Amino acid sequence: MSRRVLVVVPTYQERENVVPALDALGAHVPAADVLVVDDGSPDGTGQLAEDYAAALRGAADRGDAPAGRAVHVLHRTAKQGLGPAYVAGFRWALGRGYDVVVEMDADGSHRAQDLPRLLAATDSADLVLGSRWVPGGAVENWPWHRKVLSVGGNTYARLLLGIPLRDATGGFRAYRSELLRALPLGEVASQGYCFQVDMAWRAVRAGARVVEVPITFVERVRGQSKMSRGIVVEALVAVTRWGMHERSRRLAGAFRRTAG
Ligand SMILES: Nc1nc2c(ncn2[C@@H]2O[C@H](COP(=O)(O)OP(=O)(O)O)[C@@H](O)[C@H]2O)c(=O)[nH]1
Ligand SMILES: [Mg+2]
Question: Which of 26, 43, 124, 154 could form a disulfide with 15 if both were Cys (CB 3.0 to 4.6 A apart)?
Fold first, then answer.
């Protein structure tokens, strides 16, 4: 029996990108359903996605297209950050019996053609990270300082948290539903890059099998990034706090073992 896959695509102000993203998914992973999670974008992204979904349903009803994938839209009232949008999308997926849930940006940075390899890897992993920083991975159109920031941030997280991952901040990944069900989604308060690290770290601590698959990340050509200095700072502060907490926990454990 084939597994049911849902691709969750968070959007905020992606009017020029959302339709090409949905088309690319249809071309490369035609069996996967899609959930666009729009935070009330003032530019009408949510309505565009809604129209796309309706056209797809209409074509299937008329028999012009096979009744294959479905596109759904979850409208949220205000911009609340990437983390809460994903948590809402995950809950939506778990309530509808999907087996695999994918995270993917709407801005063209994550290539739909890389997704079949991520999905294939979920056969033997609970969480598959699309990774820019493993052999075979790449980034297109980033100035050197963006690369330094990403590699540096990931190295910091790896060393401080003790997780063996090269790209824990990336947002192109596939989860098996069993893992999402086992994680306390209600406790995840992180917003931006921090959300990705938070989820990867929780997965590692839960004993999940986490693997990295190389992807080519392409910097967006249309629209604007929503990542702010605040989001980078949030991630740095959180990773530092988690790292310190983890260290003192391990130290206390070692102390109890020597004392006892
Ligand atoms: N629903 C929702 N989507 C968001 C929010 N912030 C960013 N996104 C979406 O998340 C994806 C990644 O954001 P982006 O700004 O491209 O981040 P960057 O690639 O790190 O610069 C894009 O599809 C955005 O539209 C948000 O607050 N809510
Ligand atoms: Mg982007």
Answer: 43
